[in-house]
Specification:
The protein is mainly α. It has 9 helices and no strands.
């Protein structure tokens, strides 16, 4: 049904399911391209496609893989590019859900994207490449109904909590919601914030900051996953690379207007 059911007028079942279709479509498209390219596409491209499907899942998979190969440092560029590729998802989601706010969000988000892309290139150039180590980052089919329903529920909950926090605590409330939800998933808060911007409930300035906070929160969470699952070399290197990226993000939040 195309109508709202809550006091904040944000829980619309039809719009929630459209967002589920959108996010599943992006993931399924990346998954399909990865499969078409075959199992010898290499770790770098696997990191890109893994990041487009789920950068968190890609980080866990690559971290675990580091304990099973003789040279774990070859995985460093792939872990970084997986998180970098998440920016592509963010920009696509904002463009499709809130095209009127896209230009405002594009500049600050692109600065951090370019910085992390540079990190990916530098780490790749500094890593000795061995074709014998090329492995595909296998991903589960993202079109599963269970995953779609979980995302839809998460999106609806964040949408409602964001509206409640904004109504009761202003922008600070939305920032807290962004940080907490970003630990779990960036897509849901990105689409939620984009929806609020498109409906005129929040401004684009508040919107890009909420999305940036969610991304930095998620990047911190993924660094923690590396520390839990990866070998010591990757722990140190990811701490350095992700630490620099988080610092750039904080500077953008502090000084970009």
């Amino acid at each position: 049904p195309d109508k709202t059911y809550d006091i904040y007028n944000v829980i619309n079942p039809q719009q929630i399911w459209l967002m589920v279709v959108l996010i599943t479509g992006i993931s399924l498209g990346s998954f399909s391209v990865q499969k078409i390219m075959g199992s010898r596409s290499g770790l770098f491209l696997s990191g890109i496609f893994g990041g487009l499907i789920s950068s968190t899942a890609a980080t866990v998979t690559l971290s675990r893989l580091s304990t099973r190969i003789s040279d774990p440092k070859i995985l460093l560029p792939s872990i970084i590019i997986a998180s970098t590729a998440a920016f592509i998802r963010i920009l696509v989601e904002v463009f499709l859900v809130a095209p009127s706010a896209f230009k405002t969000i594009l500049a600050p988000i692109s600065i951090l994207f370019i910085f992390m892309l540079g990190q990916s290139i530098v780490s790749s150039l500094l890593t000795k490449h061995d074709e014998n180590n090329d492995q595909i980052l296998e991903s589960e089919n993202p079109s599963q109904l269970k995953a779609a329903i979980v995302f839809g529920l998460l999106y609806a909950v964040i949408l409602y909590v964001s509206a409640w926090a904004r109504a009761n605590f202003g922008s600070q409330g939305l920032y807290v919601v962004s940080f907490i939800s970003g630990l779990i998933d960036v897509d849901a808060i990105t689409i939620t914030t984009s929806r609020l911007m498109q409906d005129g409930m929040i401004g684009s300035e508040l919107g890009w900051r909420a999305i940036m906070i969610a991304f930095l929160s998620n990047l911190t969470f993924k660094a923690g996953l590396v520390f839990v699952f990866a070998k010591s070399y990757l722990k140190m290197q990811i701490g350095i690379y992700f630490g620099m990226a988080i610092s750039v993000g904080i500077l953008l939040l502090s000084f970009w207007h």
